[in-house]
Amino acid sequence: KLSLINSIKFKEDSKPISVGFDENSIFVVDLTQYRVNIYNKSTLEYVDYFPKTVLGNDDWLAAPTNIAISNNKIYVTDLGQANVKVFSKDGTYLNTVGSLGQQLGQFVRPKGIDIDKDENLYVVDGAFNNVQIFNKEGQLLMFFGGVDTERGSMNLPTQIQVDYTSVDFFKKYVHPNYDLEYLILVANQYGKDKISVYGKIKLKK
User: Fold this and answer.
1) Which residues of the chain have pLDDT under 70?
2) Cβ neighbours of residue 114 under 8 Å, at least 6 residues apart?
3) What residue ranges in the chain does DSSP mark as E strands?
4) What does the pLDDT read at residue 12?
5) Burial, 163: exposed, middle or buried (Cβ in 10 Å; 0-12, 13-18, 19+)?
């Protein structure tokens, strides 16, 4: 049985669309306010927001949708500008990953994002039906997915989660010559595989 313990109150014109948190704060992406609101994790009281900017600046969020938090950095998908913007936890703009286009390292409909322990950024693209992986410098490492009838393809993917806790449950699916390091779960809106599970593997020594 589940019970509502408490809730955050929003303005009537707000549209909270994604949420992340650390040990002290809750970060809520607000689509209609073009920003990320910060709340105290203990009291749920509003604290601040970012970016404090104007249309046209590099840190402007045209249509923020998804958030991921790792190693004192906050990553926000900006669907309106087809990129991912990176901020420090105090809201300072750091850099942008990707741009609008159909070349490698670019996006059309970036959606869910997540970060692994090496600070690699995983970005779902609902138009390309794939996931692109970038290192902490924003350089493209690889991509996977694509539309097909074979297993491992994607169909309008929306969310992604890098998971280190459930590895033992999936080791049996990996060739014995390889170690399974972590899992990558992708949610698809259509197709046979609504939740696809991928694995990061390495050759055993």
Assistant:
1) 3-5, 149
2) 68, 121, 122, 160, 161, 162
3) 16-21, 25-30, 35-40, 46-50, 64-70, 73-78, 83-88, 93-97, 110-115, 121-125, 130-134, 140-145, 157-163, 178-188, 195-203
4) 76
5) middle
